[in-house]
Write a structure and sequence with these properties.
By secondary structure, the chain is mainly α. The chain is elongated.
């Protein structure tokens, strides 16, 4: 009987973590790439890159939170324009948080979970 050792050393790749965070900006280009690309990066490298599981979960939770708040804000436009204010706030937050988390990832720190609902724990 052959015993295979599954305990591999995880690769430290901060550049891939930074790319995963900055790939959220694809939302501004394609409209949906900010969720798909980080999801694929997380699913393919979470077992081989140190920190990818934590950062990937943070990215997916943040993107799902932004999507949920956007869906809630669109009908709220009819309520005295509150939806427009919340969409502007979401656009600013969705632009700033990935950049902040990319800098944190390059420094080896944990990602920020500002305004994030934990869908995946």
């Amino acid at each position: 009987m052959e015993i295979i050792n599954q305990n591999r050393a995880l690769e430290q790749n901060n550049q891939l973590l930074v790319i995963a965070h900055l790939s959220q900006m694809l939302t501004y280009v394609t409209g949906f790439g900010g969720l798909i690309v980080p999801l694929l990066l997380w699913l393919t490298t979470k077992d081989s890159v140190a920190g990818m599981d934590e950062h990937g979960k943070s990215i997916i939770n943040f993107q799902l939170t932004v999507l949920l708040f956007t869906i809630v804000s669109v009908p709220a436009i009819l309520l005295f324009g509150l939806g427009i204010l919340s969409l502007i706030f979401l656009a600013v937050v969705a632009f700033v948080i990935p950049i902040v988390n990319a800098v944190k990832a390059s420094n080896g720190e944990k990602p920020s979970t500002f305004m994030t609902i934990k869908f995946i724990s």
